[in-house]
Design brief:
two-stranded antiparallel ribbon, elongated, alpha+beta, six-stranded antiparallel sheet
């Protein structure tokens, strides 16, 4: 029988939990049977045996401090996202896992951090200097190909249609604070 010793004065030798459970598992058991055997061992032996150092059963010790338990945050899954950095191209695109995404305009030519869950390409959050800039969206190639680019400058606003041509206004050249007034006293 495999066993392990607990540290401390009373070096109590307990059977290794895997060995204790394995005694109750029939050979060739499926995962469902393994869970049943583990739960049976926890309920019938482990949780009802008084621990030598705490002088309490594990179940009683847990229930004594149950009022200290807090509910997990609703966004707990977001704490376990994959983190990667990318540079936003001049056309606002970012590549991730072979797909192109649109980033917000203020992030052009900046290195950003992307937080995402593997397999969930719909929820990719962009961060720059610790601030969230929201979720990036998959690139719409039809719209992106219509954006005019000239001299490496991206014009993200389409030309206004049905707009009257602007007449050149004379430029302001300055003036005087006080006009010369021709008056007599």
């Amino acid at each position: 029988m495999r066993s392990f010793a607990l540290p401390g004065k009373n070096r109590t030798v307990l059977p290794h939990p895997a060995h204790a459970v394995s005694q109750h598992i029939p050979r060739g058991a499926f995962p469902g049977k393994l869970n049943e055997a583990l739960n049976r061992w926890l309920d019938e032996q482990y949780n009802v045996t008084v621990h030598s150092s705490t002088r309490q059963t594990p179940l009683n010790r847990y229930l004594k401090h149950a009022h200290l338990l807090r509910e997990a945050p609703k966004d707990l899954n977001d704490y376990f996202r994959t983190r990667t950095t990318r540079k936003v191209d001049r056309d606002r695109t970012v590549s991730l896992n072979g797909m192109l995404y649109e980033a917000p305009i203020p992030l052009i030519d900046k290195t950003i951090t992307l937080l995402y869950h593997d397999g969930d390409s719909a929820r990719i959050e962009a961060f720059h200097e610790g601030l969230s800039h929201g979720m990036i969206v998959p690139l719409d190639m039809k719209i992106n190909c219509r954006i005019r680019r000239k001299n490496n400058i991206v014009n993200l606003l389409p030309p206004a249609q049905n707009q009257e041509p602007q007449v050149d206004q004379p430029k302001y050249t300055g003036g005087r604070l006080f006009e010369e007034v021709d008056h007599e006293l």
